[in-house]
């Protein structure tokens, strides 16, 4: 970006230059964001929103422009136990949110040990998979309402936060921005979510929080094959018997639970090929009874599925629960095996996961990637109806292996889509196969034109058209 | 001319031109679907015009005649019809089960009515992954009947089990009695096949690339958000030909057992299920009960029905209703929630019932439920005591003769053995099959409309119920609405209490002159009160009129709606009178009505319960 343009930039604090070399600014209010978008529209400067703090995992995809760094917006203006909800700004991390929720007896809905620097709002905007499938009613959960600036520069609030009234006036009526729908005939939040910053910039959100149970225990159900665990997960989820619920293979479990080489060696020896990790909680009423009852259900279902309850490969069940309630310790668990990794993730149903894992390993083998490099993390969503499958390929950072892994991860989407994998959050190369159908692409192009007519917000993301006139850079 | 109609720019074609157009459209449509499946016969067209709330929409019991009615069998036929309408410069609107003025024509000879009743298949029920794929004419009860066989259940909107699952999930509303465990219709949508307003067939969600329907969002932004907000597009943004919906676990038998004869059926409450009418002290008690039930996750149904519709649902005709409703014990059942619990086995059932008992004990409440006899009696006594705390023991005693008479009658209908649980059985039938709501609500005046009903926190919903009742009181006092005790708030919790709704039902006689405009006055006044008290957008925040009022109060969302309509329906082919009309301007009669309401507002005092 030329110094000329930068000089015309609205007066905003500068942020650090990102790994991708983009200059960045750090707005601290929605007014500043709106002003920035107005300026960017006029000057045709692409804006790349980010809310997580450094270090970033993949850098910002795509070209030139200005990064809009909202990671310093970290206020949590509202936490409400009665309605199980919080309202917080874009830069709030999971640790910060958990700290704000805990005194009220609440916990955040989290992905599996996210990066410490990861923004909660960005995570929810991305529809990242979370570990509490029983509490997820819609794939948009736990995200509820948003305050955003569209690519037109207009400030908007979605869902019940839109009004009538200010937030404070709504609070005084007992309404805590819990309505995700509307206002009116469209679900604006849903259009913005999954857009990877290409529809609007969000400054805050309200999101469901869940009760922090007084009693909760973690259990590991292990098996040599995936099928019994899938069966067991289906039954437990159907009965709403478990809170946390996911499946990992030995590699992913070791990566998740250990840091030092010695720990890893010991855990690798102990880990079974597949583990279903669940927690049973006491809920809010008659907690001891509830906990006892569903623990017994768990034992019975595990036995009937032909699986066994075991200890975690490292640490104790108690330490595992602690670990699952927090962001990842450093280094980030997905990078512990070889220092870097690439993820390939998509959605399917639980009963199809086995076939996809098998097929992925075959694709990987053909690319010279051995089973020791691959970890599998299987996250049921939406009460068990949908499953997020995440295959992690470990690699050495910075060299040829990382480049090859990157190329493999980009290319493997096409055959997986052909086999029925649903890439609901496609990045980069994945967009082509994921959005192969002209109909859905046209629907998205029209949406983009409504909310970002000059195509200045993260242009090119999702394979959507950039600005045909090019950018005035 | 009615207030709503005054806002429409109606140009009537000369009769001959209209007849020509009709026959031309009929011929062309016949080429698409076959002669048998098109009609332009006035007598048949009129059957599509007699619609619920027509008196409010157009000031008559009859909506306008469409140019033709066409019954396609496939999505491709639907797409061809839509493309033809675009090319011809006429409008179209689809209906699934077709219950209400919003599905019909609001101008004469202007649109083709697409009736989807030939698309009536349940395409798939995936028992393991708990979803179903349906065509438009599959009703709630049909899907439920098939789902029970594989251990699943479906959310049914309060309109009843006879209405379309797809229409509710893709196009309109979604409140229902089972929301606490089975959510709100649009949140259950896992994907759809959408014939866009221009006639493209778009498959939304995982089906498009994977051939399976488990996920409705993505790739990228969710297209669900474009066509379906809180309300849906009510036919104004294309046609939905398939929908995948989330299903929920059913722990009961493959088939429910009924006894009795119409209209006095009794449903056998299955093993490990409880059907309870729970009572607490006032709205404060209701608030606590709702929050604790929501948090606990034990309930399959949590529903508030006020005494008057409860009395109507439980009786077969208005004479029976008067007998029951005049018993003070029944008349005063304001602070009750119907709670249904289902469990996998005896042990889980015991836990869940103990939770309910523990909550009710803490709140000083009681219940009438299908419990073993001694427990039944104990909780019934607590029920009476809770009620008597509010209304006085004398009133309870005065109820005894009426109650005895009622029990004798119920004994005759249902048999003595079933007497203690007959009430629970009626609650059960009404809530689980959603099959009895309408017999209650249409009986008093001939029709009803409803107001307030935002999707908000339970506390706010309760506040809305109080506001709604106080506004309605004025209309009752003037004799314009049936005297249902004013507090006729209906609704409950969704998603284990994540949000809730209470709508204020108002019953009136649609044959009375100007009844439609009176109802619109009530809707406008409750909308206004809803905004003033910051109660979020009420369920009537639908269509061009409401968007014009609420848009400026809510970040001008109406302007964005117009952009969506124009982007996806550039020819304005999808009839949007209940959705978005880009050039909408309120007419003179509507403006006058608004001024009349503004001049004479009901007084609202939130410190008092009615
Ligand atoms: C080939 C390829 C592979 C990728 N693989 C992955 C992957 O495996 N996992 C993964 O998570 N991502 C992946 N990405 C996506 C992308 O690299 C990251 O989302 C991006 O790096 C952001 O890093 P972050 O987590 O620090 O950003 P975050 O700040 O957490 O942002 C995440 C996303 O949300 C958007 N966003 C952030 N804040 C806002 C806001 N306030 N308003 C609106 N939008 C906002 C960002 O633009 C970004 O798209 C991939 C991208 C490419 C090109
Ligand atoms: C007495 C009564 C009580 C009601 N109570 C409730 C309630 O408690 N909860 C609730 O949610 N709703 C309620 N409604 C409103 C409404 O009828 C419902 O939302 C219902 O689910 C829709 O079914 P229907 O038979 O009315 O559908 P239809 O009349 O077929 O359709 C309703 C609307 O959606 C459009 N539509 C239908 N199918 C399609 C399609 N395939 N493609 C495109 N557009 C389509 C129609 O044009 C119409 O505008 C009630 C209505 C009545 C008459």
Spatial strand order of the main sheet of chain A? 15-12-14-13-17-18-16
Question: Major beta sheet of chain A, specifics?
Answer: 7 strands, antiparallel
- Strand arrangement within the widest β-sheet of chain B reads 17-14-16-15-19-20-18
Radius of gyration over C-alpha positions of chain B, nearest whole angstrom: 24 Å
General shape of chain A: globular
Number of helices of chain B: 23
**What fraction, in percent, of the residue positions of chain B are helical?**
40-55%
What is the largest interface, and how many residues per chain? Answer: A-B, 93 and 99 residues
Q: What would the average pLDDT of chain A be, to the nearest integer?
A: 94
Strand content of chain B: 15-25%
Indicate the multimeric state. Answer: heterodimer
Helix percentage range of chain A: 25-40%
What is the SS-derived class of chain A? alpha+beta
Describe the structure.
The complex is a heterodimer of chains A (473) and B (610). Helix content of chain A is 32%, strand content 20%. Chain A contains 16 helices and 18 strands. Chain A has helices spanning 3-8, 30-43, 94-101, 120-125, 167-172, 188-192, 227-238, 250-257, 261-270, 287-305, 317-324, 353-366, 400-411, 413-418, 431-434, 438-451; strands at 14-15, 24-25, 47-50, 66-69, 78-80, 85-89, 106-107, 143-150, 155-157, 200-208, 210-211, 216-223, 245-249, 274-281, 308-310, 340-348, 374-381, 386-395. The model of chain A has no long low-confidence stretch (mean pLDDT 94). Chain B is globular and about 70 Å long. In chain B, 62% of the residues are buried. Among the domains of chain B are: 5-115, Uridine Diphospho-n-acetylenolpyruvylglucosamine Reductase, domain 2 (2-Layer Sandwich); 122-249, Uridine Diphospho-n-acetylenolpyruvylglucosamine Reductase, domain 3 (2-Layer Sandwich), CATH 3.30.465; 267-443, 2-Layer Sandwich (Alpha-Beta Plaits), CATH 3.30.70. Chain B is α+β, with helices and mostly antiparallel strands. In chain B, the strands form 5 sheets. A 7-stranded antiparallel beta sheet of chain B has the order 17-14-16-15-19-20-18, with helices on both faces. The chains are: A alpha+beta (473), B alpha+beta (610). The interface between A and B is large, with 93 and 99 residues. One flavin-adenine dinucleotide binds next to β3, α4 and β10 of chain A.
